[in-house]
Design goal:
This protein has 687 residues and is α/β, with parallel strands linked by helices. Helix content is 49%, strand content 11%.
């Protein structure tokens, strides 16, 4: 068993030092060990004061989410807070770095709190649909009142310790550990008595202002969902109920929120993101920071990537063999850069300073000075392979070559380059400067060095790496094609494409599938579908009909919708409706929104099951993060596979039964149902 609490004596002060990884996460084991250490210190006659401290950068960044669903872990936390608050000897919490959620609630249970200058306090639980877990709504208002408490808990943002002055008894400058020990020794010498937060009343001094603050922040609480309303209710009750009754109210609210789908989905995504962040760090650990990247191809992905690299202090050589003027290419990149400055509200850097790190060239040979060359060109298979062959001859031996294509097999690119060990796939959703996800594809012969370069590059851009095994269309492409196939089927059964789009926006997507198809371009979607189905019929008759009729999407002026220059509204294309009507089934019917949502979600989950079964991804949760961060799947639903678990796999099977082979229930889905399991059972438990 790991030792998470180290104890040592300094005169009459017993120091209990938390040491639980980088974040000092609050877990059941930590609570158990801290409770035992606290009881031992209380029982020791020579100890007058107990000091809680932590190793590392942060006191505690909150609860270990993997233990959150277990009653014993929560009870251990509640018992620990109770032990701290009711200690007959003063307990001091020495707080540095981030002190978030349950970590701050532990500190609130202490009798005295010390702040380091870098201290940041917050309650991020609202971002995953949860109120405080162990007394935060009852202790903090007693110290600072309702308004400051509610702003902190409802915003989910961390603030500096100085913003919550009354919470702290002293700020320690200089060496924090030594200063905290001196404070504790001073309390011991003065024979100071405990000062429990439960007995404090400063925040209740003006009851009318307290209730006015509750009333004024009701709208903000409502905007945060049920967790926000629960926080408001608990804070409102703090001055009205006995302390223990207030704790019971909070505990009841927390347990009710924990059982809801939305918090479960949000918690799942956060755990999955943390896991992938760890995976990305592990993959990149043996590769130094990239300073120079070459991007090949004047495409939307290439231009977006170039701007993103410049924003992250990476020198870019942008090479396009196109005949357009170099200055025009330079201006396109600068325009995207300026848009990102506005979107990200960047004020501390000048665009001119960043654009100085950009070189635009028409000569592929100029890629030779880069550590990583990313090919984003348009073109057919033969043209791409010819480009890889040329790059393989001119690049230095250490350079890594990456393809962003889903239409040409990575193994063919690696073979054409003549250096299979140095070729990887980096598929980045569009717009590349916005989407924070990357499918990192390691070919069969790719070296760990090349994979590390790709992971390091993605990490420097702040993107989440999702490692995937090479397959036709990659992971996201497989799921998108399944979505389009089911959407095409719904059209032929009688659904209206605008109604399908509206239903999926109501489900939580930023745009519907046909809006997204118009932006992508229908021919590009059909090309991806042919790749995913390995050249066989992709079963997209409506999309094929529109493409043959010349309705190619936004860039052509019309697809499912019409796109007039300067017109903000996007009216439905009547000609598209006529093409769809010609393909309608004899028994066409109106299809309710709930059925549309269920069937499209089922198609995506079923495609995800195939990817898991084929070991294209390591875990179902990886697909969830990819589709949320790359393709707009609603975060509060947890991704396609978590949403399937929450809906019920049997319901998904029922709507997939009777579909064409490409949409028939996957064997993995059927196996999970047979064994009474969920996709979640295939995820590793990672803290």
């Amino acid at each position: 068993m790991a030792t998470l609490v180290n104890c040592r004596r300094h005169g009459a002060v017993e120091i209990l030092n938390i040491s639980h990884g980088r974040d000092n996460a609050v877990s059941r084991l930590l609570c158990t060990q801290l409770t035992a250490a606290l009881q031992a210190a209380i029982a020791e006659p020579e100890v007058a004061v107990i000091l809680l401290s932590a190793s590392g950068e942060h006191f505690s960044r909150g609860i270990d989410l993997n233990w959150l669903d277990e009653d014993p872990s929560r009870q251990a936390l509640l018992d620990l807070c109770d032990q701290i608050e009711n200690s007959p000897k003063p307990v001091i919490a020495a707080l540095q770095g981030d002190v978030l959620g349950a970590g701050f609630e532990l500190a609130l249970a202490a009798h005295y709190r010390l702040a380091a200058p870098d201290l940041r306090i917050g309650f991020p639980g609202i971002t995953i649909g949860l109120p405080p877990i162990c007394g935060g709504t009852q202790r903090l208002p007693r110290l600072i009142g309702a308004e400051a408490t509610l702003h902190l808990m409802l915003s989910g943002r961390a603030v500096s310790g100085a913003a919550l002055g009354p919470v702290f008894d002293a700020e320690i400058t200089g060496d924090f550990a030594s200063g905290a020990e001196r404070f504790a020794v001073s309390l011991a010498e003065q024979d100071t008595t405990p000062l429990p937060s439960a007995d404090r009343r400063e925040g209740f001094a003006d009851p009318f202002a307290y209730q006015d603050a509750v009333a004024n922040l009701k709208t903000m609480a409502q905007s945060k969902g049920q967790a926000g309303l629960d926080i408001l209710r608990c804070v409102e009750a703090a001055p009205l109920l006995p302390f223990e009754a207030g704790l019971d109210l909070e505990h009841e609210a927390f347990n009710a929120c924990l059982r809801r789908d939305r918090p479960a989905a949000l918690r799942h995504v956060l755990i999955a993101e943390r896991h992938l962040a760890h995976v990305g760090e592990q993959l990149a650990q043996n590769y130094a920071k990239l300073g120079h990247v070459a991007i090949l191809g004047e495409t939307a992905v290439g231009i977006g990537l170039a701007a993103d690299c410049l924003l992250h202090a990476i020198t870019v050589t942008f090479v396009s063999p196109a005949t357009t003027d170099i200055a025009d290419t330079h201006d396109k990149i600068q325009m995207v850069l300026e848009q990102e400055f506005q979107r990200r509200r960047i004020t501390d850097v000048e665009i001119e300073d960043l654009i100085d790190n950009l070189e635009v060239s028409r000569d592929v040979a100029d890629c030779a000075g880069a550590d990583l060359v990313i090919e984003t060109t348009y073109g057919n298979r033969d043209a791409k392979l010819k480009m890889f062959s040329e790059l393989g001859h001119i690049l230095p031996g250490h350079a890594v070559l990456a393809s962003t294509s889903t239409l040409v097999d990575l193994a063919e690119c690696a073979e054409a380059a003549g250096r299979a060990q140095q070729v990887i796939g980096l598929h980045i959703p569009s717009p590349a400067q916005v989407k924070p996800a990357v499918e990192l594809v390691a070919g069969a012969e790719a070296s760990s060095f090349a994979v590390a370069a790709g992971a390091r590059f993605a990490g420097q851009l702040g993107k989440t790496v999702i490692p995937v095994r090479n397959c036709p269309g990659l992971a996201a492409g497989t799921i998108l094609v399944a979505l389009w196939q089911m959407a095409d089927q719904l059209l032929r059964e009688g659904a209206d494409f605008a109604a399908i789009d509206a239903a999926m926006r109501d489900y939580g997507f930023p745009m519907g599938p046909f809006q997204a198809l118009d932006l992508r371009g229908i021919p590009a979607a059909l090309a991806l579908a042919l790749r995913v189905t390995d050249g066989s019929d992709p079963q997209l008759p409506v999309l094929t009909s529109l493409s043959e009729a010349g309705f190619l999407g936004k860039d052509s002026g019309a697809g499912f919708y019409n796109y007039e220059p300067g017109q903000r509204s996007r009216p439905a294309n009547d000609m598209a409706n006529e093409a769809i009507a010609a393909l309608r089934d004899a028994g066409a019917r109106d299809i309710p929104d709930a059925e549309i949502q269920l069937r499209l979600a089922a198609a995506m989950a079923n495609a995800g099951a195939k990817l898991v079964r084929d070991k294209v991804v390591e875990r179902p949760a990886d697909i969830d993060v990819l589709m949320i961060k790359g393709y707009g799947f609603p975060r509060h639903r947890g991704g396609p596979l978590k949403a399937a678990d929450l809906t019920g796999l049997l319901s998904l099977r029922n709507v997939l039964n009777g579909q064409t082979d490409l949409l028939a229930p996957d064997p993995l889905l059927l196996d999970l149902i047979k064994n009474g399991k969920q996709f979640a059972s295939l995820n590793d438990v990672v803290s």
